Amino acid sequence: MMIKSHPAALGGILAVSLFAAGCAETSAPAAQQNAASEAASISETEAAAAKTTEEEIPETGTAETASTEETAPEEETEVSGALPSGALLTKSSVWAGAQREDGTFLTEVTYDQLAQDTTDYAGILFGEAGASPAPDGLEAALAACNNAVRTGAESAALQLKEAALSDDTLSSDDTSCYYTLHSRLYVQRSDAAVLSVLLYTDTYSHGAHGSQAFAGYNYDLRTGKALTLASCFSDLSVLPARIQERLAALYPDVSLDESAVQQVFSLAKSPETGGALPFTFGPCGVTFWFAPGDLSAYAAGAMTATFSYAELSDVLADGLAPEAESPAIQSLPESVPYDTGREDAPLLFYAVPEEIDGAETGNLTVSVTFDGRAASLPLVGYGAEYGLADMGARQSLLINTRQDDDWETLSLFDLAGGSLSGDGSALGMGLYGHIPMDPACFVMEKRIQTLGTSLVSTLCGLGTDGRPAALSPWFVEDQRVGDSLTAKEDVPAERGASGTNPDAASLTEGTIPAGTVLTPLRTNGTDTVDCLTGDGRLVRITVDNPESWPQTIGGTDIETLFDGIGFAG
Question: What phi and psi values does residue 213 have, to the nearest 5 degrees?
């Protein structure tokens, strides 16, 4: 279950400074955590104003509402040879808040953690040798990043609790009044050379407004060591003028505070405080992040400036730029303008929940502004996560919506044409914590009801139309209601030899005897499930009537045949 994020309302500097203090003992510079002064998100008034001034773009196709219908791919898409790298990453959210003695909320603190997905997708789906090795330094880099975020969040949680307990304005019977801090990780780049992660923290501590902060965690994956501003750039003195010039071009209506600019850049040039200028490496260049209030008035919001690797080639350290420009996907925070580096205008997107009589309906309207154009997209979902897919000539905004029962669906917004090019509903699939980094090969999942409810995943790639396409007709069995199945009586099935490659199996008709314990391995998503016995034999079970109820095998109800069958709502 993914935790639903609160809107970024952010108030005094209190929790941001607490979080920064908690991050000091990490491989990243301590000062890198002190990335922002008192700040706030784009206000609701500004968001409403932006929405009312949107000029809808005539779309080439109708924006379909994302469907929750579960349908399998009609035919196999030829695998292009792009099998998953060992650097497939997943993200999970951890709750570290506090409660009153009566169990009501006092503070809410959440933070993200990253992990390497070591599932042998290639072996299960294609019968290949498995995933390619991960970069040598990836494990150390993920551990350092996770430790920094966890330490900061847990420290902030304790101090926020103390602050809340001493706040006389908090009513003991008001369960909605609590201090909040949410820290989210967004992977900007992950390849053989660099892991770059953006930490975006929003805090509310009962001030006039909330506050935001950015921090960049960058690692050399050849060594696993942290990359600092000083180690990445040979001459820090040239950065301030370049960044200021870029910001002036991107945000012509924003007046920069000269004293604030000088303070931030003077700190950035110091080896001890270089983290005051958060930066990340992306697929196309280096991005510098500024929270609201860092360089201008609070109401101006956050700002970013991206420079291509070529633009910084005179000061960028060797080995940090990608060897060749290639398609990539990076995850991005909502409501923070992002300079893609491809257009002289930032990209901005935010979701507005639909409400009827003050209650959310489960529908979203995602508004997108890019290169002077604006458009809106209606989607089904209570929340969304975002990624920017850079395909070279085309850029697409990936929108992963979360719905009831943890259902997820991926949609895409074509930034080149300003129209919806594909919504992913034909696959009925979502990311479920996976972080797509390579448009040619990433993991998507869906829930199915074959032999009980299970969460299954497969490898997908974005086609030239920006639409996800499965690379295999098979899905890996990730998680099910009841991890294994035990035959209560003889069950009709096809059987293979022990240790058989599932794609090269020679199967014979027969039965599996009562008492046999099966571990589901993969499924075609409709009527067939491949399982393994305890001694490694392949067993293929086919359901007679996958679209009717109750499901049967050989005419017998599946719950009569197996222990371990379970269904989720």
Answer: -150, 145
